[in-house]
Description:
Elements: H1 6-25, H2 28-39, H3 43-71, H4 74-91, H5 97-114, H6 116-126, H7 131-142, H8 145-160, H9 162-184, H10 202-217, H11 220-249, H12 254-277, H13 284-304, H14 309-337, H15 343-372, H16 376-399
Helix pairs in contact: 1-7, 1-8, 1-9, 2-3, 3-5, 3-6, 3-10, 3-15, 4-5, 4-9, 6-7, 6-15, 7-12, 7-14, 8-9, 11-12, 11-14, 11-15, 11-16, 12-14, 13-14, 13-16, 15-16
Amino acid sequence: MRVRDGWPLVWSLALAQLVSWGSIYYSFSLFVGDMEAELGWGRPALNGALSLGLMASGLAAYPVGAWIDRHGGRAVMTAGSLLGAALLLAWSQIHSLVGFYLLWLGLGLALSATLYDPVFAVLTRRFPQSFRTRITALTLIGGFASTVFIPLTKLFIDTLGWRHALVALALCNILICLPIHFWLLDDRGPGAEAPSEPGPSVVELKRIGEEAMRRALRHRVFWSLAICFTAYYATFSAMTFHLIPLLGERGVAGDIIVATYATIGPAQVAGRIIVFSLRRVLSSANAGRLAFAALPVSVLILLAFPGETPALFAFAILYGLGNGVVTVVRGTAVPDLMWREGYGAINGALALPSNVARAVAPFGAAWIWSISNAYLPVLWTIFFGAIAAAAGFWLAASWGRVAVPPRGE
């Protein structure tokens, strides 16, 4: 089997996902302290650039998805890797705060072209009979991005300094992601698993995608998923950036906080392994119902048992399991509950409000905290956000079509 076919391609794309997530998204927080010390910029100003990048990523999600529907993923994902590497190099030479914001505006575009949404569109387009299994497998590898790149980036910073560490991360994109996206993605059309047949023209694909998008905007499942994923990413982002100070406010010891946070990542991967193992008996709709129900329950544990160590680990395991499964469901919900036509555009349209919510939520949570100088109102807000996400998915799963995984999966 050629590397461009089947599972070798999936594992190669999974490796590129690990590098793309790890080198740009997860590495950011490790550079903040050194940049503050050398450049004198405040932490809110630095994080504002990240938020701008995430917003840019959300706004670009729809056109990126529509492009993949019509032309495939090779050009846009190759361009994303090249842009990401170039801007990491530019970051290593940065001295202007305005320039840093412009740089992160570009990095947001790079993220929109290289992370899960575009690669989900590629796999769904290329493997219409087995995309669920392949998306799940890809996220198993992608789930280790923070596990690999947080210590690797710290090693680069400690040994090379923060500026040269960015050069090293740029080289990771050039040497790993760029070749995978350029040489292994050959942009064969929909149904590449089937025997080779003449496919629809670009004009026809554009018409199909536009019709599918118009149909989606009139469909209650689309709007239920939009509510679901927007609420989910808002709560997830708020929890990600505020969990550590929240636990610190409750007097939890530092080593317990670190251990709690470290438990979430492996639990996410465990959730994906469970879904992969049960793929023949557990539909993605039922997996999503369970995962989204787990999230508000995990937050309730934090509310009911503040600062108790066993409860913290129970929260981390349940929260991680739910988030791990949600990532898979995020990639399969549109074709499973709606249809495959126009997948990239529809998924991109769903990603737009989700990414904006992910960018704004940490600041919103900080504002809620500032009103009472306490995290309890923040935690209740996160809980109701998780309830909204669960309700949105349960409605979508109830209204959506019943998708039966093919026997080959």
